[in-house]
Amino acid sequence: MAYALSKDNFTKMSEFIYRKSGIYLEEEKHYDKLAKFIDSRINTLGLDNFRRYFFKLRFEDKEGDEFQELMNAITVNETYFFREVNQFEVLANHILPSLHKVKPKNEPIRILSSPCSTGEEPYSIILHILQEGTVVEERDIEVVGIDIDSTVIEKAKKSQYTSRSVHAIPKPILNRWFKKKGMGYSLVDDLIGVVDFQVVNVFDKAAMRKLGKFDVIFSRNMMIYFDDASRKEVAMTFYDLLNPGGYVLLGHAEYMSRIVSVFNAKKIDTTLVYQK
Ligand SMILES: C[S@@+](CC[C@H](N)C(=O)[O-])C[C@H]1O[C@@H](n2cnc3c(N)ncnc32)[C@H](O)[C@@H]1O
Prior knowledge:
Helices cover 47% and strands 19% of the residues. The protein is of the alpha/beta class. It folds into two domains: 7-74, Orthogonal Bundle (Chemotaxis Receptor Methyltransferase Cher, domain 1); 85-275, Vaccinia Virus protein VP39 (Rossmann fold), CATH 3.40.50.150. Strands 6-2-1-7-8-10-9 form a seven-stranded mixed beta sheet. Strands 3-5-4 form a three-stranded antiparallel beta sheet. Helix 5 (85-102) crosses helix 6 (120-132). It is globular, with a radius of gyration of 20 Å. It starts with 6 loop residues before the first helix and ends with a strand. The structure holds S-adenosylmethionine. The site of S-adenosylmethionine has 24 residues, from loops.
C-alpha cells in the first residue's frame, strides 16, 4: 500500500522540519521512516490525507503537541555514559579548577548539556565532578540538560539505564553510584534530580535565553544532523549564552572553526575546546 506522504510532499515536510528544528532530512535515508510516522498519525488522528495532517501541524497546533510527536519520532538519540571520556576528564581536571580560580566565590559554575538525550552526558559530567572532588566541596555547580525530544527528557528524569548504556563506566564508579535494577541500572537516590532537565529546542532563542548564562556548554553529536546555516545559528546562540572565558566542547566529528570564528580553539591535553 502506498504511503500518504508522496515524494513531493516529503520535500515540503523536510523543509518545515528544517525550518523549525535545524534537522536536515534526506529523501534517500529518511523517506520511509517519515512516511510510516505520518501514516500512523493520520490513522490515530482520524484524518483523511497528508494535506489535512500538514494543515493541522502548521495551523492547528497551538500547544505544539503535534510538532512534539514529530520531533520525538525523527530524532536520533544514541548516547551512553562516558562517551568520549577525555572531554569529561578535561572538564574535571583543567576547566573546573581554572574556572574556580577566576570566578567570584559566591557564583555557581554552570554547565549546559545541549543536547542531553536520555541524560547519560550530564550525569557523566556530574560523576566526573564528584570524582575530582575539591571544586564541588567549595562551590555550587549547576548542570542543566536540554533536548528537543520530550520522550528522552522523561527518561532522563527517571534515570534508569540499560547495561549497554553503562558499559563504559569503570566498575568502581558503577558500583558506587548505581543500583542494579531488573535487567539494568538505576542511579542512586542521591543523584536523581541533581540535573535540571528541560525540553528545549536550541533554535528557540527565547527559551535558550531563559536558561541563563553558562561557563561550559557540551554540544556533542547534534550539529552533525544540521546544515552549515543552522550550525552557525546554534554556535552564535551558544556564544551569547556563555560567560566571558566560557568553553564549548563539541563531538569528535564536529569543528567550530569551520562554522564561526568567534571562539579561540585550543588543545588541553589532546582535547580540543573552544573558548569565548
Ligand atoms: C545523538 S544524540 C546526542 C546526545 C549526547 N550529546 C551524546 O553525544 O551522547 C542527539 C540529540 O540531539 C537532539 N536534538 C536534535 N535537534 C535538536 C534541537 N533542535 N534542539 C535540541 N535538541 C536537539 C535529539 O533529540 C537527540 O537526542
